[in-house]
Amino acid sequence: MAEHTAAKKPQMPSAFDLLNIESLLSEEERMVRDTVRRFVKERVNPVIGEHFEAGTFPRELIPEMAELGLLGMHLEGYGCAGLSAVSYGLACQELEAGDSGIRSFVSVQGSLAMFPIWAFGSEEQKQKWLPRMAKGEVIGCFGLTEPDHGSDPSGMLTNARRDGDSYVLNGSKMWITNGGVADLAVVWAKAEDGIRGFLVEKGTPGFSTSDIKHKLSLRASVTSELYFDDCRIPAENMLPNVKGMRGPLSCLNEARFGIAWGATGAHRACYEAALEYAQTRIQFGKPIGGFQLVQQKLAIMATEFVKAELLALQLGRLKDAGNIHPVQVSVAKRNNVREALKTAREARSILGANGITLEYPVSRHMNNLESVYTYEGTDDIHTLIIGQAITGISAFS
Amino acid sequence: MNIVVCVKQVPEPTGTNRIDPKSLRILREGVDSVLDPADEFSIEAALQIQEANPGTNVVVVSMGPDRALEAIRRGLAMGANKGVLVSDANLAGSDALTTAKVLAAAIKRENPDLVLCATESSDAYTGMVPGGIAHHLGLPLLSYAKKLTLAGGKVQIERQTEAGFQRVEAQLPAVVTVTGSINTPRYPALKGIMQAKKKPVDQLTAADLGFSPEQVGEKGAKEKVLGWAPAEQRKAGTVIKDDGTAATQIADFLAQLKVI
Q: N or C end of chain B: smaller count of CB under 10 Å?
């Protein structure tokens, strides 16, 4: 055994950790991150380009993600891992360094489908669904957005009419991640007493889905439309403990937290590809990373990446302290997705023609981030949420 | 049944080890340290035995600085039940023989039926520690296992050789070193990571194990590292420019090497 203490002198920081954020993480947080990073490197990265091209979700990874404990990882009990918010965020970062579609799958399963059952469901609902969802035996989706109601979900048209021991659902939901593969849909609909959440099982008469084709983004993810045509479900399938927009919005707040972290993963993957390319691509007799214009791009990417990580980390610390406000999630979601997208575009320019191929992850991330930019609250809406918070004046209602 | 797995925290093996020119020890400050990837195979082997024999107790044992606790926790996160860390400033500079002696003393406390080690560590590569442990415990050593089975109070292994394998067995308790072809180590599940911090870890000093400061560390070392040198760089390859005969030239080259 050899242990040596070197004299303290400032060390050159890593290109991927310019501000030594590593030192701000606990041992447990680092172990979660390293484990998910390795899973992504060994299991996701080798197959994700093919799936993106084919427009298919890598379903074969679901049992492995479940075994790792990624599904509902931030929830306590019912077979879930019970991770801290920061650990959950770090896992999202690593998943999205693989592909936004993988992170979206995990976000939807954990934050949008399992979370409302965990937070607002009856004990019977929790026992019935959560352990199987954690094991990946039941896949969930979340139906809020409608063809004509995106940023304005409270105007939804989908309705639930009470009829004896049942509710009868009518309406449709659009842009639903996992919709076509889901065994269970958490659907938000207008009931007599306000907006309510309902659990609709696949195969229920009157419930059908169709997958959205010809997407140029999130191609390794299933996006669907859900239709409810006199869809009758037992009254006990309603989530009893929440009423009004607080239900779906609190789910979105959970998921947006994961997105603010996830975007830093795509950010890092693009920066990493650009940096490596710039150091090895020789033009005019030297690596292109030696030219000022390229160096400037890389320096901005590196700086924005580390800023985004710090923002995400502080958001996570606030959440772990139980003291997080939705506007803070908006600040991070807006900034981190926006900056990741900028980095993806700059990285693409550094890679030149190579940047448009699936051999490199850059264009794939860039196209994915275009979706992430407007889903779960568009960039514009998050901007207005911040604007409202700082001025006290709402610009959208 | 009690299984002890020896583990070590090593500098990230994908990097190049930096050596302190004065002490000739590997520099561990400011370097990412990980559970030796070679140890994951022995932990996995132990966990597979545990799964097949419920009630089996798997203990990960390490000697190292305090932060080697992280390597132990990784073993616990994978599914081991308990950790033992022997950590003591007096142990710094221990040679392989002392390391084996100290580890053997720590392992003995666990009353093991089976001790699993990697064939060698991924930083110092002496490969002497497992043999030393077996010696100090007075146990048989089955080395280079690419397969391991337990039956009737015996352990049987297939020992990897260049030409094939030997089948060897020994009465338990025994020490076995495992190779990287024995299994595919699992990822520690996130739930396992959360549980790891609640699992017991005994922290021991050299004195706890009955060693005086003179018997261990630099003072107790019987061997001395004289120097380190980088491996000789490979010579540059031959570049064949295709003037129409490149394929023939490559074929001739491969034929000369007797690979085709």
A: C
The answer to whether residue B243 is domain-embedded is: no
How far apart (Å, rounded) are the C-alpha atoms in residues A217 and A370? Answer: 7
Q: Which domain holds residue B81?
A: 2-232
Confidence of residue B230 (pLDDT cuts 50, 70, 90): confident
Q: Can you give the pLDDT at residue A7?
A: 59
* Secondary structure class of B63 (helix, strand, coil): strand
A229-282 tens-digit pLDDT: 999 999 999 999 999 999 999 999 989 999 999 999 999 999 999 999 999 999
Q: A246-391: which CATH topology? A: Butyryl-CoA Dehydrogenase, subunit A; domain 3 (1.20.140)
Q: Taking CB atoms and an 8 Å cutoff, what residues of chain B touch A89?
A: none
Q: What CATH number should be reported for the domain holding residue B91?
A: 3.40.50.620
A3 and B187 within 8 Å at the Cβ level: the answer is no
When divided into structural domains, chain B yields a total of 1
Q: What is the ipTM for the molecules in this complex?
A: 0.84
pTM for the complete prediction?
A: 0.88
Q: Is the pLDDT of residue B17 over 80?
A: no
CB interface of A with B, residues 16-75, below 8 Å? 27-28, 31-32, 34-35, 38-39, 67-70, 73
Does some domain include residue B165? yes
CB contact under 8 A, B124 and A81: no
What would the 3-class secondary structure string for B126-140 be?
CCCHHHHHHHHHCCC
Domain boundaries along the sequence of chain A? 21-134, 140-237, 246-391
Which residues, numbered 129 to 158 in chain B, qualify as contacts with chain A under a Cβ-Cβ cut-off of 8 Å?
none
Overall average pLDDT of the B189-210 stretch: 94
Residue A309 dihedral angles phi and psi, to the nearest 5°: -65, -45
Please indicate if any CB of chain A lies within 8 Å of the CB of B199.
no
Is the separation of the CB atoms in B8 and B64 below 8 Å?
yes
- Give Cα A101 distance to the centre of its chain: 8
Secondary structure (3-state) at A142:
strand
- In what helix (H) or strand (E) does residue B106 lie, and over which residues does it extend? helix B96-108
**Superfamily of segment(s) A140-237:** Butyryl-CoA Dehydrogenase, subunit A, domain 2 (2.40.110.10)
Task: Indicate the residue type of B155.
Answer: V
Which residue is catalytic, options A29, A94, A346, A376? A376
- H or E stretch at A332: helix A326-351
Give me the pLDDT at residue A391, please: 97
- State whether CATH 3.40.50.2300 applies to domain A21-134: no
Q: Do the beta carbons of residue B179 and residue B146 sit within 8 Å?
A: yes
Q: Please, what's the b/e burial string for A72-99 (b: 16 or more CB within 10 A of its CB; e: otherwise)?
A: bbbbeebbbbbbbbbbbbbbbbbbbbbb
Summarised one tens digit per residue, pLDDT across range B24-79 is 777 777 677 889 999 999 999 999 999 999 999 999 999 999 989 999 999 999 99
Identity of the residue numbered A158: T
Instruction: Choose among B25, B70, B190: nearest Cβ to A81.
Output: B190
